[in-house]
Structure formats: structure tokens, C-alpha cells
Amino acid sequence: MCATPAGQPREHHVPERTCVVCRARRPQSEFVRLTRVEGHWQEQTVNRTGRGAYVCSDSPNCWQDKRLRRAFGPQAPDVAALLVRRFQTTQTNQPMTD
Ligand SMILES: [Zn+2]
User: Fold this and answer.
1) Which of 45, 54, 59, 94 could in theory staple to 31 by disulfide, Cβ–Cβ 3.0 to 4.6 A?
2) In the chain, what's the furthest Cα-to-Cα distance?
3) What is the predicted pLDDT for the residue at 37?
4) What's the gap in Å between 22 CA and the centre of ligand 1?
5) How many angstroms does the Cα of residue 70 sit away from the middle of ligand 1?
6) What is the CA(6)–ligand 1 centre distance, in A?
7) DSSP string over 48-88
8) Cα separation, 44 vs 33, whole angstroms
9) 7 C-alpha to center of ligand 1: Å?
10) Which parts of the sequence belong to the YlxR domain (predicted)?
11) How far does the centroid of ligand 1 lie from the alpha carbon of residue 35, in Å?
12) E strand or H helix at 92, and its extent?
């Protein structure tokens, strides 16, 4: 017989990441991924492996340079500015759709 049951779609395995600031575990899509390029932290938009740091993309509490300092050290203010600027850009460009 070839009547193979289609089977229930299984839950997608969503890879979880941990915020370097608040330690929350969430799906990767809810984070901003930062990577260090030539000594400077910047947002990583290209999907590739490597060393990265994840920060909640929707949580201003995680964007305070004081809290970022543990993960980013002296570059924390730069990272904070990047996250805030990114958020403002997202806000003006599009509504909350995905
Ligand atoms: Zn966080």
C-alpha cells in the first residue's frame, strides 16, 4: 500500500539564542545580531556563521550602554547608539509587520 499518512506537521525547531544583556532565550528572529568586524561591533545582516552577540531587538532596556558594557566593553556606547538608531529607522520605514 502506498497510502502513507501525511503525518502531522511537527513543530518547527526554532533555534534559540540568548541575549547577552538580559540572558533571555528567544528565537533568533527576535534579536539583533552583532558581530565584530575589524574591531568594531556592527549589526550583522548577512546570514553567516561566526562569532556574534545577540541583543533583544525590541527591548530598550537591553540597549543601555551601562548594561551593554559587560558584553561590549568600551564600545558599549557605540552599540547602544546603533541599536537605538536601528530601532528608529525601523519605526519610520515600516509599521509593525513582518
Ligand atoms: Zn535582552
Assistant:
1) 54
2) 66
3) 84
4) 4
5) 13
6) 39
7) --S--EEEESS-GGGG-HHHHHHHHGGGHHHHHHHHHHHHH
8) 5
9) 37
10) 17-73
11) 16
12) helix 76-93
CA of residue 67 to ligand 1 center, whole Å = 10
What's phi and psi for 83, nearest 5 deg? Answer: -65, -40
The CA-based angle 88-94-97, given to 5 degrees, is 115
Q: Which amino acid is at 61?
A: N
Rounded to 10 deg, the angle between the 65-72 and 76-93 helix axes is 120
Q: What is the 69 CA–ligand 1 centroid distance (Å)?
A: 13
CB atoms within 10 A of CB 17: 20
Domain annotation for the chain: domains and CATH numbers = 16-92 (3.30.1230)
C-alpha cell at 93: 520605514
